[in-house]
Automatic annotation (TrEMBL):
Keywords: Cytoplasm, DNA replication, DNA-directed DNA polymerase, Endonuclease, Exonuclease, Hydrolase, Magnesium, Manganese, Metal-binding, Nuclease, Nucleotidyltransferase, Transferase. It catalyses: Endonucleolytic cleavage to 5'-phosphomonoester; DNA(n) + a 2'-deoxyribonucleoside 5'-triphosphate = DNA(n+1) + diphosphate. This is Ribonuclease H. GO terms for molecular function: 3'-5' exonuclease activity; DNA binding; DNA-directed DNA polymerase activity; magnesium ion binding; RNA-DNA hybrid ribonuclease activity.
Length: 476
């Protein structure tokens, strides 16, 4: 039998960023208890939480069975849910990638059972880990830096860590630093769910809603923690286009396949507004082989809402917009089927639909026109698409749509500037007379041209376009 160890890990930070400490309280039923701590001068709370988990695991034999308790949802959900997606996108846009990669490395080949526990709730193990973390901070008064976080000692962290670095962006909601919210009402006693929401709020920040009251944020999270809607950061006036993509359990909406992910980003006047919606959905059936395409597992989706629970919110966001999708009939058929089951409504009845695949076929007949091919054809900067994802594909499609339909206006001339430019060009055209010289080919050039035409006909057993054009001219 493998020995079983219990670990309580915690981090602390005075300032976030600021001086930080980590603590690991390890219980070995045979050898007793072990306490570890350390600190760093310039760090964040999330880095200390991660370091505590790393150092605690390292201190245990590789053959041991570990039960780990952390009061950080950032650590627990990151290592159990989000890390697969992070690795699939090669850690792009992930905060603290050095520590996440280290934690991933030290957990490989180990048997670990992760648990979230509410902090400062009187649990003996968690309280001791918290004391050790603060002891790590205090140790910095005599020690310039902790030997466990040397890589972070001279690196000033200039921004708050954001819990929503998960590749899916839906497992929490936007919030601000706890320091920005201390004057708002504390609703942590309302229910056990609100207590966990409080923990999520304390670990995330988003500059876009700095002024949002804490009570309002909690209400938004409590209403539906799995719906991620970002507000516009670039307001525009005009018709809404929603660049949309879905992921599903299969190809046949008529044969019980269901939607598991929806992502859409808003565009007005050919400019992204910053607004988007992103939702993961429990399909109420196994994802099957489709997991090989999108990388979304049954395990990940089991706690996600069913479509009926998010239908009203999603329909309200999409309603009235022009939906732009690649092979749009696929996405619209699935959405129509889902909305009919949940709301007895059809999205196609309230939205105009534009299919970028149809546009691509008209512009490039007889060629392949997948999203990947179009990205290469229009020289759009590549993104990692090891696994498909609805929001990622929507972002890529936005670039493709702009490129196929004329691209963005690079000079950003306003109407008056454009009017002046057109007037000047018209004036030049009216007052400029140019004789266009005619340059005739030489005898040697004509002979070389005829030789090429003859060679082409011998090789291909048909006339070239030049020979055909010459024949047409002679006939006329």
């Amino acid at each position: 039998m493998h020995k079983q160890y219990t670990l309580y890990v915690d981090g602390a930070c005075k300032g976030n960023p600021g001086k930080g400490g980590w603590g690991a309280y390890i219980i070995d039923p045979e050898q007793g208890k072990k306490e570890l701590f350390g600190g760093a001068e310039d760090t964040t709370n999330n880095r200390m939480e991660l370091t505590a988990a790393i150092e605690g695991i390292r201190a245990c034999p590789r053959s041991a069975q570990l039960t780990i308790y952390t009061d950080s949802n950032y650590v627990k959900r990151g290592i159990t849910e989000w890390i697969t997606g992070w690795k699939a996108k090669n850690w792009k846009d992930v905060k603290n990638p050095d520590l996440w990669q280290t934690l991933d490395e030290v957990t490989q080949g180990r048997e670990i059972d992760w648990h979230w526990i509410k902090g400062h709730a009187g649990h003996e193990g968690n309280e001791r880990a918290d004391q050790l973390a603060n002891k790590g901070v205090d140790s910095l008064q005599s020690t310039p830096s902790s030997q466990s976080d040397k890589s972070n000692d001279k690196k000033k962290v200039t921004e708050s860590d954001w819990l929503l670095d998960d590749p899916f962006g839906l497992d929490a909601t936007d919030s601000t630093e706890e320091a920005d919210l201390t004057e708002e009402a504390d609703l942590s006693e309302e229910s056990d769910h609100l207590e966990e929401v409080e923990e999520v709020i304390d670990e995330i920040s988003d500059e876009s809603i700095i002024s949002t009251p804490k009570a309002e944020i909690k209400a938004q999270i409590t209403e539906n923690v799995h719906i991620k809607i970002t507000e516009t950061t670039n307001p525009q006036v005009g018709e809404r286009l929603l660049i949309l993509d879905t992921e599903t359990t299969g190809f046949y909406y008529q044969d019980s396949d269901r939607i598991i992910e929806v992502g859409a980003i808003e565009m007005i006047n050919r400019k992204l507004t910053g607004s988007s919606i992103h939702i993961y959905i429990n399909p109420e059936k196994p994802v099957g082989e489709s997991e090989n395409i999108h990388g979304i597992s049954d395990e990940f989706l089991k706690d996600k809402p069913k479509f009926a629970a998010i239908a009203d919110t999603l329909f309200a966001y999409l309603e009235g917009a022009e939906i732009v999708a690649h092979n749009a009939s696929f996405d619209i058929n699935f959405l129509d089927a889902e909305f009919e089951r949940a709301l007895d409504k059809k999205l196609s009845a309230v939205c105009k639909v534009t299919d970028t695949l149809a546009i691509a076929k008209r512009k490039h007949p007889g060629q392949k026109n997948s999203l990947d091919i179009l990205v290469k054809r229009y020289e759009i900067p590549p993104r990692d698409r090891t696994f498909h994802g609805a929001l990622l594909d929507a972002e890529i499609l936005a670039d493709v749509y702009l490129a196929m339909t004329g691209g963005q206006v690079s000079l950003h001339l306003d109407q008056q500037q454009q009017k002046v430019a057109n007037t000047q060009n018209s004036h030049l055209n009216q007052n400029s007379q140019h004789d266009i010289p005619l340059i005739f080919p030489t005898e040697s050039e004509l002979e070389a041209h005829q030789a090429w035409i003859n060679t082409f006909k011998e090789k291909n057993e048909k006339d070239s376009l030049f020979a055909f054009a010459e024949a047409q001219l002679l006939e006329s």
